[in-house]
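subagent[fold] <- orchestrator: predict structure for attached chain, return C-alpha cells only, no commentary.
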Amino acid sequence: MGGMGGNTMGFTSILKQCSDELRKHPLLPGEPVDPDQPAGECRDFLEWEDGKAWLDYRLDQVEGDLEQTLMRMSYFAPDAERVLVGYPRLVPKNTTKCLTAAPGQTELPFADIPQDALPILGQAQKRLDDRMKKAAADNGADFVDLYANTGSNTACDGANRGIGGLTENSKLELFGQPIPWYGHPNEKGRDIQAKRVAAEIETVLNR
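subagent[fold] -> orchestrator:
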C-alpha cells in the first residue's frame, strides 16, 4: 500500500510558478517551472505555453513510473495485494471559497496565487489522479480515490479543511522556525484519509 506521483509531477514547482510569495520562502521545497515567467501569468503559461508541454511530459513520466513500479511489485511479490493511494483534493470546485482566510488565519489558503490560476491547479491534480487510477487499473492493482471523496475538505473549506494552507504554520519546526503545511494534510485530513485507506484495505483483504 502506498502513494506516489505528486513529486514526479512537480506539484511544488507548479505552486511556485504561480506565487511570488512562495518563491521567496526559504523553507518551502521546489523551484518554479520557469522563474523568468511572472507568477501572475502562470495560468496562461501552464495552459497554453511552455508550461503545458512541461506538465504533459511530467504526467507521462508519472504514469510510466507507476506502471513500472506496480509491475516490479507483482514480479517480486506475486501474491501481494497492491493498493495505490491517490491524493486528497486541494482546490474546491468553487474557488471563491479560497478568497477567505481560514478561522484563526490571516493569509489566504493559497497565499497570493491568482484566483484565475486555481482551476489550473485543480485540473493538474485531477489529471494526476486520473493517471494514477489508470496505472492501477492497467496493472490489476486497487486504487484509493481520495480526490473524489475529499471535495468538502479542501484547503479552502475553513474549519472543515483537511489540507493546511500554503503558508499556514504546522506544528513542526526547522532551525527554530515553524514549517508551513504547504498544501499537505493537517490532522483532520490525516484522519479522513486514514479512515478511507483502512476501509479499502479491509475490503481488499476480505474479498
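orchestrator: received. Logging for downstream: The longest strand covers residues 169-174. The chain has seven helices and four strands.
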